[in-house]
Amino acid sequence: MEFSYDLVVVGAGTAGIPCAAEAALAGAKVLLVEKDHQIGGTLHISGGHMAAAGTRRQAERGIADSVDAHLADIRRISAGTAREDLVRIVAENAAETVDWLDDRDFRFASETPRIVYGHEPYTTARTYYGADEAMSILEVFERLLDEAIATGRLDLWKNSPVIGLIPRNGGVGGVSVLRGDQDVEVHAREVVLATGGFAADPDLFLELEGAPLVSAAHPTSTGDGIHLARELGAAVAGTGSFLPSFGGLPHPTSPGKANWSDRQLLIAAERPPVEIYVDKHGRRWVAEDEPSIDDKERALTRIDDMTFWTVFDDAMVESTRSGRPLVVGWTPEDLRARADHRTGVHSAGTLEELAAKAGIDPAGLTATAARYNEAVASGVDPDFGRAHLPLPLLQPPFYAIRNHAISLVTFAGIDIDSDFRVRRTDGSPLPNLYAIGEVIGAAATCGQSFCSGMLVTPAITFGRLLGRRLAAEDR
To answer: What is the Cα–Cα distance from 285 to 276, expressed in whole angstroms?
Structure first.
């Protein structure tokens, strides 16, 4: 069975949906194909942060901002490691993207735009997200898809994995799709890969990121687009740029994964720490109140297994009652009740017993606790310069929560040029093949860093720009 379209977009997520819909609304005959039973991809687990300078929403709140200021912040945070050509395209079009969402009744969180401290912060409030995080974006996309499908120019296939690219004249002429038990050929003038990252594929993650994987990613993030493109000689860019997200509890039922919904609040600007961080030897390894989450993430990559424990006592648990919790959504009673029942959460009457339960060296932990208590008593931390020293580690029961460097996104990805064309290993473009979204790797727009909003914003922006452009070229 064969089908023919002007454009095939592989992946109905953050980049693929706006690309396919914009192309169809501009007159192209489009197939949007998705391997999952639902659309949205990582929008189902994402905070949906976007960044843009010069939006209407900023103007309404009296916030002065500019494209140049946004670019300067990206260069500062990434230390110049992001793709200048691509981030300029994002910054110059981001305000139009956010205003477009606004025009389509996007439900902004009331506090946005704001400065977000979960990543190295911008100097200006330019981060936006929805009242229901990324699901607010998906609400807009669902209406957009309905509009495009109603034109008769967009078909959406779900439960339909793409299993191959069809070569044609040195480039690509379509895709092979598995529909039920049939291998279907779909011919197209252009193909866009928008399949997301690979943080749910441990083998590919180890190959390209060079690190062990503890994943909190969407289960469909298996690197399909990278596998497909490399079979035709596509290059991979961004290797060696891996940076983990800072800490996530082990998943209660799935080894090698982290549960992002149960995570510790480890950002000093949002919750000044009462606890200490130790490695498996029981040693502290960073100032827990270090304001730079980027510095903390880089320090985490240098400890054994990129695994650490937060250690605290009952007085510290109680101290969070009137402020921000130790674990997002957990009251002190929740934490106490889940200790020794929730995977990775332990309690004991002594530090030695706690260390044995948690897998920490007992002698190391007790020595570290004693030295930390001396620092609290003197008001000076001679080892790491921690300034916030509110409580000693003395009152049983004692608690330890295991945390891993976790991966929500991947930094390596398909190499593209500034027109979003997939490039071969020799730098030449693969005719009629394009890539957008996380499949190009976070390093393209963030460098070796996390720049707030510089994953979702490029995905939507590149998707809309490419969809409109390809539709115009096809007419």
So the answer is: 9
Torsion angle, alpha carbons of 252, 258, 263, 267, to 10:
160
For residue 108, the 8-state DSSP code is B
**Separation CA 84–CA 74 (nearest Å):** 10
In which region does residue 8 sit, left (phi positive, over 0), alpha (psi from -120 to 50) or beta (all else)?
A: beta
Query: What is the C-alpha to C-alpha distance for residues 107 and 101, in angstroms, rounded to an integer?
Result: 9
CA–CA gap between residue 139 and residue 218 (Å, rounded):
18
* Predicted confidence (pLDDT) per residue in 342-390, tens digit: 999 999 999 999 999 999 999 999 999 999 999 999 999 999 999 999 9
Residue bearing tokens 């003197």 = 378
Q: What is the pLDDT of residues 46-95, one digit of tens each?
A: 999 999 999 999 999 999 999 999 999 999 999 999 999 999 999 999 99
User: How would DSSP label each residue in 367-401?
Assistant: HHHHHHHHHHHHT--TTT--------S-SSSEEEE
- The answer to whether the beta carbons of residues 208 and 198 sit under 8 Å apart is yes
Helix axes 84-103, 67-78, angle to 10 degrees: 130
> Computed from CA positions of residues 388, 394, 395, 396, in that sequence, does the dihedral angle turn out positive or negative?
positive
pLDDT of 384-429, one tens digit each? 999 999 999 999 999 999 998 888 899 999 999 999 999 999 999 9
Mean model confidence pLDDT for the chain: 95
Q: Confirm if 402 and 211 have CB atoms less than 8 A apart.
A: no
Residue 125 structure tokens:
């409030």
Beta bridge partners of 182: 179
Between strands 421-423 and 429-435, the pairing is antiparallel
Task: Output the pTM of the full model.
Answer: 0.91
